[in-house]
Write a structure and sequence with these properties.
This protein is α/β, with parallel strands linked by helices. It is 43% helix and 15% strand. It folds into three domains: 5-48, lambda repressor-like DNA-binding domains (434 Repressor (Amino-terminal Domain)), CATH 1.10.260.40; 62-164 and 299-326, Rossmann fold; 166-296, Response regulator (Rossmann fold), CATH 3.40.50.2300. The relative contact order is 0.12.
Length: 339
């Protein structure tokens, strides 16, 4: 049987209230009494009843994270890195993390957010893969429910976020390919409703125009951020009458899929065609050949958005409410050759 406050009170012949206040460090308990309570609690192996404490505080000490995916893709290295950062930071502050998955932009997703918010299952929420007009953000703003986003949105209202300068990241990798002699450069974009898809398309167009190259819609395909999506988009590009000599994929998983498509076309990546990604997940340096990519610190972003949310929940001031991080180009063998 677990040891309770009543057990300690009975042994010391004091009230349960005194035991509780001694364990919580209240100054109105005599030091001698406090030490006796602490010593006996240690001897008996007392552990506080977390649920009871949370009910008393009117809080759950739990952070919610609903992953927008059409399947339980915990094997996706992007989400694995993000979850690791969120989970470690939550644990450091003694918060639990409630994780769920839900198809994006569906009735199921709306219901999931309503259950988390109206059911008070969590104290606050973290959002990722933000959309241009994001119903999740609009709903949480309307309900005045605490949240922090990884990404920006055009939804009206002020909210806290951390994001990476996607426009700059794509500009860096496109300029690198141009410097390597490429002139027919294709792009595999994420779904157009995602906010970072907008920024990455803009960065690609600006980089081409700045270097005197025309933006060609024929060389732009859309993928679903999966390896399969990248593979299928790359096949469409490589089957064109005048295929590209370089492909900019907007995440590493789609780049891996594009490498598979190039190999199916008997092209040697890093010699016949250049392929690049975005994220720099651990997988990127172990592809064949190792993948040139744009590094965004996914683990650190997960840790940071979680810390920001905890600060909001605990009423602490935030040094910055909106943070945009600079990406870094990481050049590897998949593109490091002159055409």
């Amino acid at each position: 049987m677990p040891v309770t406050l009543k057990d300690i009170a009975r042994r010391l012949n004091i009230s349960v209230t005194t035991v509780s206040r001694a364990l919580h460090g209240y100054e109105d308990v005599a030091e001698e009494t406090r030490q006796k309570v602490l010593a006996l609690a240690e001897e008996l192996g007392y552990r506080p009843h977390i649920l009871a404490q949370r009910l008393q505080k009117g809080r759950t000490d739990t952070i919610g994270f609903i992953i927008p995916t059409f399947g339980p893709r915990f094997s996706d290295p992007f989400f694995s890195e993000l979850l690791a950062g969120i989970g470690n930071e939550a644990a450091r502050h003694d918060y639990d993390l409630l994780v769920s998955t839900c198809p994006p932009d569906t009735v199921e997703e709306v219901n999931a957010y309503e259950q988390f918010v109206m059911g008070r299952r969590v104290d606050g929420l973290l959002i990722t893969r933000t959309r241009v007009y994001d119903q999740r953000i609009a709903y949480l703003l309307e309900k005045e429910f605490p949240f922090v986003a990884f990404g920006r949105s055009k939804v009206e209202g002020d909210f806290c976020y951390v994001d990476v300068d996607s426009e700059e990241g794509i500009r860096l990798v496109t300029r690198h390919l141009i410097e390597m002699g490429h002139r027919r450069i294709a792009m595999i974009l994420p779904p157009s409703e995602l906010m970072f898809s907008v920024y990455r398309r803009i960065g690609f167009q600006k980089a081409l125009e700045k270097n005197g190259l025309e933006f060609d819609e024929e060389l732009v395909e859309e993928g679903d951020l999966t390896e399969r999506g990248g593979y299928e988009a790359a096949l469409r590009l490589l089957d064109k009458p005048h295929p590209p000599t370089a492909i900019v994929a907007c995440n590493d998983l789609m780049a891996v899929g594009a490498i598979g498509a190039a190999q199916e076309h008997r092209l040697k990546v890093g010699r016949d065609i250049a392929i690049t990604g975005f994220d720099d997940v651990p997988l990127a340096e172990h592809t064949v050949p190792p993948l040139t990519t744009v590094r965004q610190p996914v683990y650190e972003i997960g840790r940071r958005i979680c810390q920001m949310l905890i600060y909001i929940l605990e009423g602490k001031p935030l040094p910055q409410r909106q943070v945009i991080l600079k990406p870094k180009l990481v050049i590897r063998e998949s593109s490091n050759f002159h055409l």
